[in-house]
Amino acid sequence: MRLYSYFRSSAAYRVRIALALKKVDAEILPVHLLKGGGEQLGPVYRKLNPQALVPTLETEAGALTQSLAIIEYLEETHPEPPLLPREPFQRARVRAFALAIACDIHPLNNLRVLNRLRTDFDADQKAIEGWYCHWIQQGLGALELMVSDRAAAKGVCFEGPPGLADICLVPQMANARRYACDLSAMPKLLAVDTALRRRPEFRVAAPEAQGDYEPPAR
Amino acid sequence: MRLYSYFRSSAAYRVRIALALKKVDAEILPVHLLKGGGEQLGPVYRKLNPQALVPTLETEAGALTQSLAIIEYLEETHPEPPLLPREPFQRARVRAFALAIACDIHPLNNLRVLNRLRTDFDADQKAIEGWYCHWIQQGLGALELMVSDRAAAKGVCFEGPPGLADICLVPQMANARRYACDLSAMPKLLAVDTALRRRPEFRVAAPEAQGDYEPPAR
Question: Which residues lie below 8 Å from residue B140, measured CB to CB, with a gap of 6+?
Fold first, then answer.
């Protein structure tokens, strides 16, 4: 399998963690989201991914898009170790946590959205940072309430091995740090994130461990 | 089961369609997103749904949030009729279609986001409509490429009975019509939407069939 990825894309980061947890080898093919106006916008990549977003997973059966759909596919084709609990209600709780990040935080802070705020509303860097941290704080503030003290003490969002919720949390926390958002109201999420990032599967998936990594300019 | 819903919420609309397709009875409890500043923001509702969004499904085991997590829960607890194909690759294609709407179109046009554009960037109604239709056209334009001619001719996004992709498409198309976005570049999606809306399960779930429905002011 081949994963089209960008070191800084948190959606690609999720899939990289899932691949590492599942011990599935995939060749990483970098797609630079900024260079030349964005390599993802070219016709060849668009054929694989009509949305012109990363990640895309190329499988023997064809190309798959959308990080959560790719992770559910990995879960179904490589069941061990499980990324979701077995019981339907508990699975739904974990999926809801993941979707709260994937639907209600991350897309609002995506590169293409920030660019649109600049062009449509003349947003300056300060306004962009305010917008960015607003959605992170509102979103993660709600998720803080969904993590039990017991799970947090074990270094995971939900009891059991690291799974879909953890896979979505860590990249979102990396984004929050990048924009220096105040996360002091989320002690459980901070503790879980710190514990998860020590694990080898999360380390190899991190932006700074990628071949296409670029250290921050500032 | 009890579904906290708002007639105009497209996320709640998705769950209403899923319940109807599964023939699962649920009491609908309206949550008015505008009245008194928004009933979803009160402490009682926030206990059920820390994100203060609709829908929430109250089950015997507890409250579930996030429309796609709720629909996957219904799929696992009430397998017939299936909302996803059986084969993992095909399941992932359908989930990716649904997630492209749930992550990359709908959250950008949510009430709370439009309000934020007004307060943070002084966006007027014309700018809001431009923003709204931009994401719909970009998003649905990509999805148009993911629907085969054969499926479209059968009135569904993917061959087989109506499922998760169809459940997400119809509410998103209703939003697009509400803002009068130009959809002429999406003939397949238009045909599928028209066919789906004739089905009884989609009719009973429509905004105008809800107890809390309010006809448009203009």
Answer: B105, B172, B173, B176, B183, B186, B189
